[in-house]
């Protein structure tokens, strides 16, 4: 999907959008940017073998207050979710399916919980799915980070066909950051999503990264310029 994003109001400036395996920002002005988002090549990802991560991504394996992989309950859950799988893409997919299913209470009642909290309550929305999946990945040796942005949903809050605030997970596989979305049940993620910010969650809390894009979302217009199908 090729998008044009525009910000309303003369006091707002379009931030630099992240480049990932799916998303490539294009020409921009102070208040607009073009963007191409396409599905990752899952066929190629399935051939990637397990290997030690390069030095530049090892920070995405650290334990942190939000992604506390030193928590015994997180470790037990991570081991149960992974089983004997070691191949990076298949491991990430297995963890994604596990998190989708283990969070049985899908609701908006929780305000930016840590992975340790989600591990115990098994409740929450997209942010809880994202942090638990990121933690289970790190506990299994998969570098992980979270993404906040927009995702297309058919209906939300009484409105139909909208892009709404969303959070999901990325794993480092085959020298690329690959999207996995436990809340929307996607391992081969749809390009009907826009990444606005990315965080390792090593020092920042989930709420910090979410609130950092509020000013952008509140004035953003999303235009779909073209859609290509395969």
Task: Describe, in short, the structure shown.
With 230 residues, the protein is of the alpha+beta class.
Descriptors:
four-stranded antiparallel β-sheet; about 230 residues; alpha+beta; 7 helices; globular; 10 strands
Q: Please list the strands of the largest sheet in the order they lie side by side.
A: 2-3-1-10
Proportion of helical residues: 25-40%
Strand content: 25-35%
Number of strands: 10
- Radius of gyration over all CA atoms, rounded: 17 Å
Oligomer class = single chain
Major sheet summary line: 4 strands, antiparallel
Helix vs. strand class: alpha+beta
Unreliable segments of 5+ consecutive residues:
none
Q: Determine the number of helices (DSSP H or I, runs of at least 4 residues).
A: 7
Span of the ends, CA to CA: 12 Å
SSE sequence, one letter per element:
EEEHHHEHEHEEEEHHE
Give the overall silhouette: globular
- Average pLDDT confidence is 93
């Amino acid at each position: 999907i090729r998008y044009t994003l525009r910000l309303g109001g003369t006091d707002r400036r379009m931030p630099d959008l992240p480049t990932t395996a799916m998303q490539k920002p294009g020409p921009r002005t102070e208040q607009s940017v073009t963007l191409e988002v396409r599905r990752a090549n899952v066929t190629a990802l399935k051939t990637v073998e397990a290997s030690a991560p390069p030095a530049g991504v090892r920070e995405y394996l650290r334990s942190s207050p939000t992604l506390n992989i030193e928590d015994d309950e997180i470790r037990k859950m991570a081991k149960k979710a992974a089983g004997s799988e070691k191949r990076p893409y298949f491991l990430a997919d297995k963890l994604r399916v596990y998190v989708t299913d283990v969070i049985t209470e899908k609701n908006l009642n929780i305000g930016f919980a840590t992975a340790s909290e989600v591990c115990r309550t098994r409740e929450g929305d997209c942010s809880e799915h994202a942090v638990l999946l990121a933690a289970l990945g790190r506990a299994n040796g998969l570098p992980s980070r979270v993404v906040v942005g927009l995702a297309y949903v058919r209906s939300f809050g009484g409105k139909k066909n909208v892009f709404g605030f969303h959070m999901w997970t990325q794993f480092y596989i085959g020298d690329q950051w690959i999207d996995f979305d436990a809340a929307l049940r996607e391992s081969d993620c749809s390009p009907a999503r826009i990444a606005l910010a990315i965080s390792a969650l090593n020092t920042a809390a989930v709420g910090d990264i979410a609130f950092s894009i509020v000013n952008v979302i509140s004035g953003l217009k999303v235009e779909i310029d073209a859609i290509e199908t395969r």
